[in-house]
Amino acid sequence: MFHLKTNLIYTKITSTSFPSAAELIELDGRLIGDWLASLPYFFNEGAIQAPKFALCHSILRWRYRNLRILMYRPFLVGKWMLNSDQGPDGLREKDDTHVELAIQRCFDAARESVELISSFWAQHQKTTMACWYGVYFLFQAILIPVICLRNNPSDPAAHGWREQIFQAVNTLESMVPLNANAERFLRVIQSLCGCYLYPRSNGWEGPIQESPETQIANLYPLMWPTLEMAQLDGVDSAL
């Protein structure tokens, strides 16, 4: 049902011309908002679930936040990696208010995903299926603070980014026995931002010296589902 309701968003964000922040915010309210409103009361965001329904309910919460990350991530990358107020296609956004809201929604979705997945993993039965979904959505979420931290490690928000990364790392470490990808993703996180997690004797490490083009080329394969993941998740692999 979620994919049917939000298919237009997937189509828009995978098209050659990326939509504006204003258009995505409108689609968010109309499609994701309507989908959330259509959920039965016992599956609402904060509804308490019996153990047998806890994973299904949690996956719904993780999934729509993951879509928001995919929707708004290009605007965040434009600001933190490219140091630009331009949109994903290099066109200057006319309404900075929409761009800032898009960036904030990306931050919020990533932070909430890390918190929700880590909390679920700590409190519920650790099954292979829960681990598979948790690993995938958690890694997609933690890339957001990782990207920001390595490009501006002295930003006032950097402490919060580090806390999110530490929380995600702790959760991924406990997932390793059930999913080999967890160990792989831990290595990726360490290689991307390990030197920015702890201060040196003379202060924090400076921003990454890689060009934006090099960073994007290296990060892009990590930002989208692999063919195997897409097929397992029931998503068209072309997405």
TrEMBL record:
The lineage of its organism: Eukaryota, Fungi, Dikarya, Ascomycota, Pezizomycotina. This is Unnamed protein product. InterPro entries: Fungal_SecMet_Regulators (IPR051127). It comes from Aspergillus oryzae (Yellow koji mold). It comes from the Eukaryota. Transmembrane segments: none annotated. The keyword Nucleus applies. GO terms for cellular component: nucleus. Keywords: Nucleus, Transcription, Transcription regulation. GO terms for molecular function: DNA-binding transcription factor activity, RNA polymerase II-specific; RNA polymerase II cis-regulatory region sequence-specific DNA binding. CDD domains: fungal_TF_MHR. One of its GO terms (biological process) is positive regulation of transcription from RNA polymerase II promoter by galactose.
